[in-house]
Structures are given as C-alpha cells and as structure tokens.
Amino acid sequence: MRLSHRTTMVAGGLVWGGAILLVSPVPTRARPITDRAFLQMMSSACTWFHHMVAGIFVGMVDRVVDRAVAGLLFAVFYNTFSGSPRHP
Q1: Residue-averaged pLDDT of the chain
Q2: pLDDT score, position 51
Q3: Which of 28, 62, 79, 88 is the most exposed place for a label (fewest CB within 10 A)?
Q4: What is the DSSP secondary structure assignment for residue 47, as one 8-state letter?
C-alpha cells in the first residue's frame, strides 16, 4: 500500500492548523491550564506565534506549511522503504 503525497500533506497541515485555530483564540474556562500550556508550547516552537489575532493566524499558517512538508516527507519515506510497487 502506498501513501498519496498530496493527501498526506493536506491531512497533516489541516489537522495541526485546525488544532491551533480551535485552541488559540479562546483559552477556554473549562480547561485553562491545558490550553495555556499548549499556547506556551506553541509560542516556544513557533517564533511568530503570539496570543493575538494576527499572531494566531500567522502561527496557524506557519504550522500548516510545516506539517504539510512533514507529511510529504513522511509519505515519501514510507513509500520508499515500504517496498510497495509503484503501480499495482
């Protein structure tokens, strides 16, 4: 079984970008400790990420591109080392 490069890129980018977009705008009152820890982790991992509206979108775009590239590399390495034929 081979992985699609495009699908793996889109899935990786949307999952991580969506997580940032959902968690970042409002540190929920139900889980303030967990959300703040996530935001602090993201601000240390992504230098452009700040807890402001512009910073949230810049951080989201940065993480979407980063995870898309990581998904592409994962798919390429998986397809290379899995031993699956190119065309079934």
Answers
A1: 78
A2: 65
A3: 88
A4: T
Closest by CA to 17, choosing from 59, 48, 55, is 59
d(CA 82, CA 2): 8
Q: Distance of CA 48 to CAs 13, 29, 43, 78, Å?
A: 17, 25, 7, 31
Q: Using an 8 Å Cβ cutoff, are 38 and 25 in contact?
A: no
Q: Which pLDDT band holds residue 28 (cuts at 50, 70, 90)?
A: low
Q: Buried b vs exposed e over 33-58: b needs ≥16 C-beta within 10 Å?
A: eebeebbeebbeebeebbeeeeebbe
Helix count and strand count (H, E) for the chain: 3, 0
Q: Where are the domains of the chain?
A: 5-81
Q: Which of 61, 49, 54, 70 is nearest to 18 (CA)?
A: 61
What global pTM score does this model have?
A: 0.70
